[in-house]
Design a protein that fits this description.
- The complex is a heterodimer of chains A (about 725) and B (about 270).
- Chain A is built from 24 helices and 28 strands.
- Chain A is an alpha/beta fold and about 725 residues long.
- Chain A folds into 4 domains: about 270 residues, Rossmann fold; about 140 residues, no CATH class; about 80 residues, Luciferase, domain 3 (Roll); about 170 residues, ANL, C-terminal domain (GMP Synthetase, Chain A, domain 3, 2-Layer Sandwich).
- The longest helix of chain A has about 35 residues.
- Chain A starts with a helix and ends in a 17-residue tail after the last strand.
- Chain B has about 270 residues and is of the alpha/beta class.
- Chain B is built from 10 helices and 12 strands.
- In chain B, helix 3 runs parallel beside helix 6.
- Classes of the chains: A alpha/beta (about 725), B alpha/beta (about 270).
- Chains A and B meet through loops of A and helix 5 and helix 7 of B.
């Protein structure tokens, strides 16, 4: 262990890292939060002070070693400090999902036996008070935002700043006690407990030690060259392991600044103001942004529209990968005069070409408008408006990309808030090739990683320059990977979790004595480049009635890459054919409806529109063709499908809070629909109960149309060729 | 309820302290030519309370509010504010005394951003003259910063951070109402007049607005007089209610008293004429 300590620089806990940061980067910003319209910032020294006062305050309240401190609220520096303060007081922070409804919160709070809860605001306090009717081990509730809480009974409710004040007053008395408890923290003591999202069954508390957190933070920071100059935007749920690693682990290790948005509604403008250099988002966020860009481009002027498409097409042909990627290392070395001149020259050329392009095309657009007053856009774009040979020489492509950078990529990146991104990650689900390519060609170094809570995020990551859409990269530093016979992935790493809290049975199921952990995902290594490729959850990979492999996720992901499809659930395990439920994407389809003068009053009505159903049918049939290409998976073609009348929703229990479909729940809830799919009916009536955000229930009913989709025959295909209507 | 409402101050069931009378209206009569809009009405508003004025359409509620805000001058009667009789005043003079209001039909500057609109609410707190403003040094700058801070607190309070820089004209109705409330609140009034703050809103927006009104009263101790049609809202929010019908006062008291008042029931449900 001594060796490992040395490897991690002899920092055995987060509080120790904090102390180092205060010493090394004391005056640099550690946290920022937008409040009252201004980015308020705290340096490392100030943050450490706040943490110390809070920790002393917690001690004054009588916190014990090993107590669990639940932390609930949106991302705010105060709550991150709460986590570190709990650690300094010898306790263990347990961040919870802030949008969890009371019952979910009750289970987790009961399971972890928290004595202290730190809440963000009234909303969370109300939930905790409601929970307290049933569970009685919560002793003190601390809240940060005073608003609306003045009239509450304050015998066990405390304002964050009051606790800090108390801590400051008790400094002399409790300082020694805190120092003792802090010194007791070692590499193997618990750093944090995080709850899994509970895709299957109840969430489990994953206990992560300081070793897990610090080693993972260190390895990943080194892997991507993260330094103290990074800026991250902390907006993902605090209960999620990713946020803990990015906003606390790596931030503490590398000493960079964590920025918290003003509110969930202002996220996009805050993102733009901060311009993070290191960014993480689930594929869905990128997808939504891309959809918005495309919709806004449709409404833009002819010149912008044509330039955008021309340069994006150009960038996607490989120029983006070649010229657009940001430099891996931020060099502090001064540039030589020659380098400066060369850089200045190229920059000037880029701007020069950009002006030339703009002027020439404005003139051309003017003429096009005269000749074709109607449908100018079509004619202007058809003639490839920017067919300029900007620079006749070796660097032609380079200069064209730079010109595009000035005109299109740069401004667009800036609008999206991605102007400064050096490293971006996406994970959690497969990302559509279109989306991935779009961001990368613009010069955003977007990569994929594969991980889970139990591994402290990192299992595999894509190194710079080896990024592909359909793989998840090579094993992360320090991670060993083994594949079982059925394709299931096992790993062993310094980040491997300690145990599931109070659940030795589950721990033993997941982690064997040698430290190998089962991921539950099936995958294989690509023969050409050694990258890991994920097919599906190992337990979801089933068999069709005729013995063929059934990998629903594989097909679902292919379908979900279409912008107008939001969610798909494919059925077919142990059956003779595959069928699917489909959710349309209201933004994309709604936009289509608007442009085509299709009137609709509700999601349900739009989802049942015959044209929409036909479009989706086209998508299904195209996907069937592509699925058929792979012999192993050709049985997974979708024979029949329907479009659901409501979006699958976490409030109804159909999805997890991280938006993964709960297959079992969906299967039970919509049993009549599944029967209809397999029973050959062409429509089916269904009544569904829905839960609104405030917990009330309602019900909606609909008669859904069921369609047949054409499937492609396979080599053994005896029972194929079901034609469409 | 055994509250002694005649006492100087008392504490309500939910623990708020209601102080002495701030605004006392005595025998107000308001005529427009031959039309009598308000007939001999007297009532008072106490420090820290939420006072509702209700009544059917055309009862004279808005006229009453306009009398309080100094926009209409009553032909008869007296307005007493904080123990002194108020001489006839221009609305801006009334505003300087610490009254602010919102309007039934939103009266915001459509082309200006939300923030700028709210800043206009601070006008009475600005003392720098035109030249100082133009040079933008010293007093003007300091004042602007202080005022901006107040506005930002209001923005935070009403949860409209995401539209801070959006021109008001682009906002939906419910948000405009909230911006108007923000502007009134930015003036840091001691008495806030709300003319139908919840008209035309859906249930969710009404709930939000009710929460803001209660929080406002709770956090800043603002005295609020409001006109509202939604009876559920009125009964839940207000401490005391005045009921008007055809320019006359037909009821005054706590929500329960008013609810059981036969005249009020007749006015709202109609009464058979023999």
């Amino acid at each position: 262990m001594a060796q490992e300590l040395a490897a991690a620089g002899a920092f055995a806990s987060i509080p120790e890292l904090l102390a180092r940061n205060v010493k090394e980067f004391g005056d640099r910003p550690a946290y920022r939060e937008k409040e009252f319209g201004i980015w308020q910032s705290w340096t490392w020294a100030q943050a450490a002070e706040e943490i110390q006062n809070l920790a002393l305050g917690l001690l004054a309240l009588g916190i014990n070693r090993g107590d669990h401190v639940a932390i609930i609220g949106r991302n705010r520096p105060a709550l991150y400090w709460g986590m570190v303060a709990a650690q300094r007081a010898g306790a263990v922070p347990v961040p919870l999902y802030q949008d969890a409804v009371t019952e979910e919160m009750e289970y987790v709070l009961e399971n972890c036996g928290a004595r202290f809860v730190i809440c963000g605001d009234q909303e969370q306090v109300d939930k905790v008070i409601e929970v307290q009717e049933k569970i009685h081990h919560i002793e003190h509730v601390i809240y940060f935002d005073k608003r609306g809480l003045r009239k509450y009974d304050h015998s066990h409710l405390h304002w964050y700043h009051d606790i800090q004040e108390e801590g400051r007053a008790a400094h002399a008395r409790l300082q020694d006690e805190m120092a003792v408890r802090e010194a007791e923290l070692n590499y193997d003591s618990t750093c944090v407990m995080l709850y899994t999202s509970g895709t299957t069954g109840r969430p489990k508390g994953v206990v992560l030690s300081n070793r897990n957190i610090i080693e993972s933070a260190k390895n990943s920071s080194e892997f991507d060259n993260l330094g103290m100059n990074e800026d991250v935007l902390a907006y993902l749920p605090m209960a999620w392991v990713g946020d803990f690693i990015f906003s606390l682990g790596q931030a503490m290790w590398s000493g960079f600044c964590v920025n918290c948005p003003e509110s969930a509604d202002t996220l996009m403008s805050d993102l733009r103001e901060i311009g993070p250099t290191y960014y993480f988002a689930p594929p869905r966020v990128f997808e939504t942004q891309l959809t918005n860009v495309m919709i806004r481009m449709e409404d833009s002027g002819n010149l912008k529209y044509a330039l955008f498409h021309h340069f994006m097409d150009f960038a996607k042909k490989g120029a983006g990968e070649k010229y657009g990627m940001p430099r891996r290392k931020v060099t502090t070395k001064k540039r030589t005069l020659e380098q400066k001149i060369r850089h200045g020259f190229r920059y000037a050329m880029g701007i020069g070409f950009a002006i030339e392009t703009l002027v020439e095309n404005t003139i051309r657009l003017g003429f096009t408008k005269l000749r074709h007053p109607v449908e100018t856009r079509k004619h202007f774009k058809a003639k490839d408006p920017i067919g300029l040979k900007l620079y006749r020489g070796k660097l032609q492509e380079y200069f064209k990309y730079r010109c595009g950078d000035v005109l299109v990529y740069g401004p667009l990146k800036d609008t999206l808030g991605f102007g400064r991104i050096r490293v971006g990650y996406t994970a959690g689900e497969a990302i559509g090739p279109e989306i991935f390519e779009f961001y990368r060609s613009m010069g955003i170094n977007l990569k994929q990683l594969y991980g889970q809570t139990e591994a402290t995020v990192f299992i595999t990551v894509q190194p710079d320059g080896e990024v592909r859409n359909d793989t998840v990269g090579v094993p992360a530093p320090g991670v060993e990977i083994r594949l079982a016979d059925n394709g299931e992935i096992f790993y062993r790493s310094p980040g491997t979790f300690v145990e599931y809290y109070n659940n030795p049975a589950s721990t033993a199921d997941t982690k064997d004595p040698e430290g190998w952990v089962a991921t539950g995902d099936a995958g294989f290594f690509d023969k050409h480049n050694g990258h890991l490729r994920i097919i599906d959850r190992a337990k979801d990979v089933g068999k069709m009635a005729d013995g063929k492999m059934f990998a629903p996720k594989y097909v679902e992901n292919k379908l979900k890459f279409y912008p107008d499809i939001l969610e798909v659930v494919v059925f077919g395990n142990e059956r003779d054919m595959c069928t699917a439920f489909i959710n349309i994407d209201l933004t994309a389809v709604g936009n289509w409806a608007e442009r085509n003068n299709v009137a609709y009053a509700s999601y349900q009505e739009l989802a049942g529109h015959p044209d929409v159903v036909s479009t989706i049918q086209d998508h299904v049939e195209t996907v069937n063709k592509s699925v058929a290409e792979d012999d192993m998976l050709s049985g997974c073609q979708i024979h029949r499908f329907l479009i659901l009348h409501k979006e699958l929703d976490a409030d109804d229990g159909e999805m997890t809070r991280t938006r993964k479909v709960r297959r079992k729940v969906v299967e039970e809830k919509y049993a009549p629909l599944i029967d209809a799919l397999y029973g050959g009916k062409h429509e089916q009536y269904i009544e569904t109960e829905v839960t609104y955000e405030d917990g009330r229930k309602g019900s909606i009913n609909a008669t859904l149309e069921i369609r047949d989709a054409a499937v492609v025959g396979t080599n053994q295909g005896q029972k194929t060729g079901v034609a469409a209507e | 309820m055994s509250l002694d409402m005649n006492a100087d101050s008392y504490v309500t069931a939910d623990g708020r302290t209601i102080g002495p009378v701030v605004m006392d209206l005595k025998n107000i009569t308001l005529r427009f030519g031959g039309v009598v809009a308000i007939k001999d009405i007297s009532f008072d508003i106490r420090e820290g309370e939420i006072r509702a004025i209700i009544g059917p359409n055309g009862a004279g509620k808005s006229s009453m509010l306009n009398v309080i805000s100094g926009f209409y001058k009553p032909q008869e009667g007296e307005v007493w504010f904080r123990g002194t009789k108020r001489p006839p005043m221009k609305p801006f003079q009334v505003a300087r005394q610490g009254l602010a209001r919102t309007f039934q039909n939103i009266a915001l500057f459509d082309g200006m951003t939300v923030l700028d609109n709210i800043m206009t609410g601070r006008l009475n707190h600005m003392t720098a003259n035109m030249f100082q403003q133009a040079i933008w040094k010293g007093k003007a700058e300091k004042e602007e910063l202080a005022n901006r801070e107040v506005c930002e607190k209001v923005i935070d309070f009403l949860e409209i951070q995401h539209i801070r820089k959006t021109p008001v004209g682009r906002l939906p109705y419910g948000l405009k109402k909230r911006v108007e409330l923000a502007r009134a609140l930015a003036a840091e009034p001691s008495l806030l007049l709300l003319d139908e703050p919840m008209a035309g809103m859906n249930v969710e927006e009404k709930e939000d607005m009710s929460r803001f009104i209660l929080d406002m009263n709770d956090e800043f101790g603002t005295t609020i007089a409001l006109i509202e049609h939604d009876m559920g809202v009125v009964m839940d929010l207000s401490d005391r209610v005045v009921v008007m019908d055809y320019g006359k006062k037909i009821g005054d008291g706590t929500p329960e008293e008013v609810r059981n008042n036969q005249d009020v029931i007749d006015a709202y449900l109609g009464v058979a004429h023999d």
